[in-house]
Structure formats: C-alpha cells, structure tokens
C-alpha cells in the first residue's frame, strides 16, 4: 500500500532556483526507480520561499529501498546542498485553517 508524504524544503541562501530544479526531478527519479506511484505529485511554494512537496511512495518497503539506491542517494545529496528539511508545521501557512501556496510547475 502506498504512503503519502508531505515534506518541506527551505532553500539555503542563494539556492532557490537550484532547489526548484532538484524538486522537479525528484519524483520522476523515484518513479524510474520503482519507488513512487503515478499519483500526481504536488509542488508548491510558501510566501517565504519554502517548497512543499506531496507525493506517494509505492510502499513502506520503497522508502527503505530508496536508502539503498545510488541514484536516489545522489539526488538527496543534491537536496542537502541547496536546502534544509524542515517540519511542515513550521511553514507559516500551515498554521492557517486553509493553507494557501503558490503552485510550482516543471517550467518554474
């Protein structure tokens, strides 16, 4: 059974554009590795520039397998260079009853 996750990436100074590039390639890579489902991924940006991603892992096992995939590890290293992972609850919009974000597309 799939596992839907929500993750927040706060760009490091000067890395906002690089973060967008890394994010748009994230789920396609996970799918190519058989780790994420075809459920549409949602990428959005908060007012402070934090990127929030919602996607579905193929299974609990897929999450574990990602930690052994050289391709995924390489991508996650790139994430570490351009952002900090933060709790979704620390994104200011998350405290609102109806949290609004700016949509991100692969063209952004």
What does this entry look like structurally?
The protein is an alpha+beta fold and 108 residues long. It has one domain: Alpha-Beta Plaits. The protein has three helices and five strands. A five-stranded antiparallel sheet has the order 4-1-3-2-5. The longest helix is centred in the N-terminal third of the chain and has 17 residues. The protein starts with a strand and ends in a 5-residue tail after the last strand. The mean pLDDT is 95.
Note the topology:
Blueprint: E1 3-11, H1 16-32, E2 42-45, E3 51-57, H2 60-66, H3 70-82, E4 83-86, E5 102-103
Helix pairs in contact: 1-3
Q: In which range does the helix fraction lie?
A: 25-40%
Biggest sheet statistics: 5 strands, antiparallel
Q: Beta-strand level of the residues, as a percent range?
A: 15-25%
What is the CATH architecture assignment?
Answer: 2-Layer Sandwich
- Count of β-strands: 5
Looking across the biggest beta sheet, what order are the strands in?
4-1-3-2-5
Radius of gyration: 14 Å
How far do the termini sit from each other? 31 Å
Extract low-pLDDT stretches.
none
Shape: globular
Structural class: alpha+beta
What is the helix tally? 3
- H/E element order: EHEEHHEE
> The CATH topology, please?
Alpha-Beta Plaits
In total, the number of domains comes to 1
CATH C-level name = Alpha Beta
Whole-number mean pLDDT: 95
